[in-house]
Amino acid sequence: AARNEAIDPVPVKSREQQAVTALHRIRSAYVADRTARINTVRGILREFGHAIPLGARTFPARARAALDDERIPAELRGALAQALDEIATLQGKARDLTAQFERLADHMPAVQHLLSVPGIGPITATALVAFVGDVRRFPSGRHFASYIGLTPRESSSGFKRRLGHVSKRGNTYLRMLLTHGARSVLNAARRTKEPDSLQVWALATQLRRGHNVATIALANRLARIAWRVWRDERPYERRLTP
Description:
9 helices
């Protein structure tokens, strides 16, 4: 390894980066625990005739209303109520960390530039800065997207080029955040009356290749845009279609 000059050294995180990445891991653990409890309670209530739709936003209110049903055994209601209290506590802790990321964003110049990119909010922006560090170590936006695992796996031979699914290598957390951001951009593009060039491209890709492929393609493009505005230290410029 010492004799091979082609090996890129892994950058060492600063104390600030390590602190922010730790906060992201804690928040992810809160969200995962909350989701596990929601799925458990939803499954139990379904067995007693209460089918609650998917989604964490309306679940607590619907679940507490279901506890008043006589079909729920009395010896079970206490445990379910306690589980709902734990869900509310976990949701509150995750919300507090989200507010902390918003406060941290005010003191991080790179995050301010990333917030101008569609589909990137305080959580994604602070995660990119904390996990990546110096974005200038990537020579291009494609290298940056490949680092996150948003480029297709290539299996080419001779003059035949074969591109498969995305490699899914790199940071799983960053890839998940950018994918969620791409979904929000697609949903907003379907509702807006004056789509910009990025939204027009995303809708055309969705019409041609389907929703899931368009989502990943848009996540790849958001990663490249984030690399550019981060490297050049200037906000994203929205361009309307003529």
